Amino acid sequence: MGRPEESRSEVSAVALVGGLGDVLSALSKALQRKGHLVEIVLPKYDCMQYESIQDLRVLDLVVESYFDGQLFKNKIWIGTVEGLPVYFIEPLHPAKFFWRGKTYGEPDDFRRFSFFSRAALELLHQADKKPDIIHCHDWQTAFVAPLYWDLYAPKGLNSARICFTCHNFEYQGTAPASEIASCGLDIHNLNRPDRMQDHSSPDRINPVKGAIVFSNIVTTVSPTYAQEVRTSKGGQGLHATLNAHAQKFVGILNGIDTDSWNPATDSFLRFQYNTNDLEGKAENKKALQRHLGLSFSDSRRPLVGCITRLVPQKGVHLIRHAIYRSLELGGQFVLLGSSPVPDIRREFEEIAKNFENHEHVRLILKYDEALSHSIYASSDMFIIPSIFEPCGLTQMIAMRYGAIPIARKTGGLNDSVFDVDDDTIPVQLRNGYTFVTPNEQGFNGAFDRAFNHYKNDNESWQELINRVMNIDFSWDTSASQYEELYLQSVSRARAARQAAG
Ligand code: ADP
């Protein structure tokens, strides 16, 4: 690539799987394409998709890491995932931290991930890695920042800069302060209001707060969300800390993996299509309607899609309302959603039952990747009425598949969906319908306009489809922003070292 040697960054991403996995692999792949050496460190979960890991093998290296006053051995595995080298840490600890049949949501999550954070740093140290950047994601790996400066920088792992990305400030991983000592962190040094002490109580410790204080770079996943979390309303208790560290805090909009989300090549679809030939989109719609037992007699009846976790953040009351409003306006509605919240699950199961045989509404209450692709491809409109949304991926995927987003103006939605009727925005950027007030009236204000547009001006609706399908949501732009942050931080550190002689 002919890149100067000094601009190459070695990035060790210490990460988790799940929705975050998509973001992480896409960012890592984009950085790799730019010529950087990217290595990922993950727990060796029992419940990973082992079939997507190539050449998985155990290394000769056994890493010993500290926990609860003892040293524990860790087996280290290496494999390749989507062309990226990944180290998997298997702790030989009696609690079998990552042998639980799920990634997180265990009562001892704080212990599991503080153990992992320490073992990951120990791996870098013992394998003599010299990363320029250690990039950690979310509270589960937030311990890396204070551990690094307290224990590992003094051990010689001192050329790295720490970048911490918080994908959702709702999840901060707080715990009783005493628990922080297990991984070797100094409770007296860290349980202070300006360090890791949670705002709720002097006896609680907050890993995300620690990562904000101790990282060199702190990011979140959209510019608008970065502004929102700096206010007392949106900051989930961390706004003061974020404001105190504002100079290193920035919001970078995520991209989507445009290789796997591509209607022209998507093997989940019965009919592939592109902007020059939208016939396939109409065929997919008919196929989905057949598959779900919906009426397909009127091709001009708009299909409204929604694919989401059904949690309060996603505006479940507005999703429920949209079902009935779609019917009133003469549309069809398909929801694919799963819910970890029992009350919400029950409520939607009830609604699903009421519409079981309805010709225009179907609720599918599970997680189903294949079906999600068909719904994106079949939808004419796609709703994302979130109360808050750090970035949101579904609006971008929907647009790539030619579904017009109807979104609440919050977080990453505000940075990616621009109202067709908003005169303050250049025409070529307008790509959907938006609303501000999170109630039924607010939602209708956008939804009804979208229906009117669909019904009354087919030509301009088709132009809109073309426009949204051509928007570049790839990771390239975002990865360049991360690269820029890394390089600035690395060169600042070099200059400081040189100045110190
Ligand atoms: P969040 O990470 O808060 O759940 P995002 O919009 O960032 O929301 O990402 C959601 C991702 O999960 C999208 O890729 C979406 O297609 C997928 N998804 C959400 N719910 C389902 C479901 N029930 N079945 C299949 N995929 C889903």
From TrEMBL:
Reactions catalysed, as given in the entry: [(1->4)-alpha-D-glucosyl](n) + ADP-alpha-D-glucose = [(1->4)-alpha-D-glucosyl](n+1) + ADP + H(+)
Keywords, in A-Z order: Amyloplast, Chloroplast, Glycosyltransferase, Plastid, Starch biosynthesis, Transferase, Transit peptide
Residue stretches making up the Starch synthase catalytic domain: 9-243
Domain of life: Eukaryota
Membrane-crossing segments per the record: none
GO annotation terms (biological process): starch biosynthetic process
UniProt cross-references to CDD domains, sorted A to Z: GT5_Glycogen_synthase_DULL1-like
Pfam families named in the record: Glyco_transf_5, Glycos_transf_1
EC numbers for this chain: 2.4.1.-
Coiled-coil ranges (or none): none
Pathway(s) per entry: Glycan biosynthesis; starch biosynthesis
Location of the Glycosyl transferase family domain: 298-454
One Gene Ontology cellular component annotation held by this UniProt entry: amyloplast
InterPro entries cross-referenced by the UniProt entry: Glyco_trans_1, GS/SS, Starch_synth_cat_dom
Subcellular location, record wording: Plastid, Chloroplast; Plastid, Amyloplast
GO function terms (MF aspect): alpha-1,4-glucan glucosyltransferase (ADP-glucose donor) activity; alpha-1,4-glucan glucosyltransferase (UDP-glucose donor) activity
EC class: transferase
Family: Belongs to the glycosyltransferase 1 family. Bacterial/plant glycogen synthase subfamily.
HAMAP family: Glycogen_synth
PANTHER family: PTHR46083, STARCH SYNTHASE 4, CHLOROPLASTIC_AMYLOPLASTIC-RELATED
Descriptive protein name: Starch synthase, chloroplastic/amyloplastic
Phylogenetic classification of the source organism: Eukaryota, Viridiplantae, Streptophyta, Embryophyta, Tracheophyta
